[in-house]
Amino acid sequence: MPKKKKVNPKKNVKKNKSAKKSAKKVLKKKVVKKNLKAKTNNLKKNVLEKKAPQPLTIKSGQQNDIIEIKKIKKQESEKRIYKVKDYVIYPKHGIGQIISIDKLNIANIDVSVYKIEITKDRLNLTIPTNQQQHLRPLSSSNQVNKALTILKGKAKIKRTMWSRRAAEYEQKINSGDIYQIAEVVRDLNKNTDMPIDQSYSERQLFEKAYDRLLGEVSIVMRISEEEGKIKLNKSLGKKIEENTNNQT
Questions:
Q1: Does position 248 have pLDDT exceeding 60, yes or no?
Q2: What angle, rounded to 10 degrees, do the helices at 240-247 and 225-236 form?
Q3: Distance between CA atoms of 83 and 98, rounded to whole angstroms?
Q4: What's the mean per-residue pLDDT of the chain?
Q5: What is the domain-level CATH number for residue 115?
Q6: 161: exposed, middle or buried (C-beta count within 10 Å: 0-12, 13-18, 19+)?
Q7: Are 235 and 170 contained in the same domain?
């Protein structure tokens, strides 16, 4: 009979260990590959969903002149929605009037621009005509009336920290949307002229939203600012005589 080969237990243990190490290496490679794929997909997603860059602000020689440019690029066409003397809303600054349409040479590229005067802030904006999507025309009479109706509604105040609410109010004001601005005026409105009823930051936000709304209402309805204040205060249920004197 042939002799049976003796099995070395130590040799089997070594084989098992090396097999386990190989399995771990393979598993590790798979995990690394999976993570790399996930990171690549996330990167692609972020690129696709990437928000528009913040405007590059260039201050010219005059203190109150600001050039707002998202990205300098060659303009393929001369499509313009707005004309000189048109009123427009620039969300960041509110209502303004186009005083001219000029050409500038930036980085050896000829750029057609709107020169916009923001009377309230006493500044001039320069915005490329191919970035006019950042502007909006004045609201219609129907939209203004709807905004005044919003002022008559009940305030909707969230039970959250003031800092969070203040950030939301600021975002609504800077959206340039007349309805959102009206909501801020309504929510921060106090039916009294006693400053003790409002904190300083509340009062600031209220006045900012109130002035933005007042400017648009007055121009759309072709009335003076005094008449505009009366309309707004009436919708807010304020005492008209007292509030009018306080705002001037």
A1: no
A2: 130
A3: 7
A4: 77
A5: 2.40.10.170
A6: exposed
A7: yes
